[in-house]
Each structure stands twice: as C-alpha cells, then as structure tokens.
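User: Hello! I'm new to structural biology and keep hearing that structure can be predicted from sequence alone. Could you demonstrate with Methyltransferase type 11 domain-containing protein? Please show me the input and the output so I can see what each looks like.

Assistant: Of course. The first part below is the input, the amino acid sequence of Methyltransferase type 11 domain-containing protein. The second part is the output, the predicted structure written as tokens.
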Amino acid sequence: MKNPEMRERGKKAYTWLPNSNHILLDIGCGVGEFTGYFQGKANIVIGCDISLENLRNAQRMNHGISFVQCECEYLPFKNDTVGAVVCTDVLEHTNSKKQTIHEIFRVMKEEATMCLSVPYKGSFWFLDVENFRYYINKLITTPLFPPSQGGDKGEAFRAIKKKVKSGLPHKHFTFAELKELVHNFTILKYSRTGCFIYPMCLIAYRVTKRLRITFLDRFVRFLADADYSIAYGIHAFNIMLLVKKPKKK
C-alpha cells in the first residue's frame, strides 16, 4: 500500500479481497480513508455513506471514485450487480443489522465477496470508548429517587435529560451472532484480532486528538495497529470475515 499510515484493517481488507471485480462498494466509507486504495481491486469503486459532509470530504480526497449518500439498510443499487463489498466497522452503527446484511446480499452478484469487520465480544469488549458516553447518559437520566418520594419518575432529571443525546450502544458481536447474520453467505475465512491494548489506545486517541499532540497521536495509532495485527482468538476485540455469496441452486 502506498500510504504508510493506512490502518491494519484497511490493509487486511485489501489483501483478502480478490482482484478483477467489476464494481466494488465501500459501505459506510466515511471520509474515504480507505476507499481510494480499493481502486486496485475493481474497475469501478463506489463509496456509500449517510453523511453528506463525509462524502464531500471523501470526494476531495479521492479522484475517479463515485460517492453516494444513502443508508446501509436501503442501498440504491440493482440486484446482482456488485462484485465485491467492503464493510469495515459499520454494521454495529446501523439500526437494523439484518436489513443491512439483506441489502448487501441483494446487490451482490453470485460468487461476489464481502470483507466485513465488526467489534468482537471478547474479554475486554466493555472497554469500548464508543459506549462510555451512552452508558453515562443512561446513568444520569435514571432518577435517584423513586416516585414514592415525591414527583413523577425522572422529574428530577428532566432538565439534564433534554441535553443528553441518546444512542444505540456500539454493539460487539459474538461469533454465533455473526454466523446467524451472514447465514446466506459462505464464510471463507475470519480472524479475531486486538485485545487489551487496542481499546486502551482508542481511549488515549480521544485525548491526544483533543489536545492536538501530533507525535503522541501517531504513537497511539501505531500501537493500536500493532495490536490489531495480532490474533487473540476468543479474547479479541475485533473480528473480520471474508464471505462469498453462493451460486443459486
């Protein structure tokens, strides 16, 4: 890969995907951090994201790539048209995991492949920084006093609750849950990587990014990528699968 700062998940997805795909979809592409690199894997690369701001930034970073604003649950593509799909750390953010996988399956051609990565429910899944805000919000919006001690439920925290944005937890999947979600696909291979260091680096990265400490930011990213490249089995924090849409019988 040309970019030495490309993260390990992008490298692995690039390595796992076969060459000569006619159309490749990068679903939940964000600002297109990885999208441009997949041009070496397909004739046509399309990035999809729900955020228009992300897509504008992605377009500035990547030339010769089309970007489409859409929800993962409703992909604006015809049936059986896509040769490969990249969906890295996106599924856990969707409102309907089943609908998202169903849509991906629908647009993929027979024997097309998908590289899917999600957080894994290993030994340290509870250290996920993405969930900290959610659980703190749940705590501060729970009334300290029951209704019997005066006022209706939650009255004491009504003012705070208005300021809090609720959201879905950053879901970590078990292997059994993933197998059920992709049951229409054939699993070609998978790897479970990252452990304790990886989530701790994500926490540290929030601090270094806010403080704009560039050299520490790069060091934290280096540690995170190094830990991501190590297989930890059932203790892992991340999982990546390569799956294939089978031929119709």
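User: So the tokens describe the shape?

Assistant: Right, they're a compact way of writing down the 3D structure. Reading them back into a model, for example: The chain has eight helices and seven strands.
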